[in-house]
Amino acid sequence: MISNNADIEVLLPILKKIPLFSGLEEDLHREIIQRIVLMYYPADYTIFNEGDEGDALYIVKKGSVKVFHPESADTEEEKVAEINEGGFFGEMALVSDVPRNASVKALTDLEVFILSKDDFKNLLDSNKVLAEQISATVVDRIKDNDK
Predict the structure, then answer these.
(1) pLDDT at 147 > cutoff 70
(2) What is the pLDDT of residues 25-42, one digit of tens each?
(3) Cys staple from 67: which of 27, 81, 87, 103, with CB 3.0 to 4.6 Å?
(4) Across the chain, how many H-helices and E-strands are there?
């Protein structure tokens, strides 16, 4: 779990940019941060594959990743995005059971903060205010996506 003050100060502004967490008070951001772990991956490591179960949110501390659709018999690999320091991916896995819609691979040696779906659910179970605010945000995002 994150206890390093420098990491907390790095994470606070990033959480405010993630649509799922942007409307939360700082004390709730700090509660979320207490559930986050730091992981290291080498360059070329596949973080997850398209179709995998979504089980975590990832925030890039150092390095970069590429988001892509893997090549198939009919298509070549299609790069969707490159995410660098301070960027994030996989946030909808925290509130949805939809499989991953793309693959992600480390382009460089990578340090990422990870919030697992299980830790997030435990946090929601123990914090009614957070659960209500996250639920409202999810409903708003679904409405926006349907427009």
Answers:
(1) no
(2) 888 888 889 999 999 999
(3) 81
(4) 4, 8
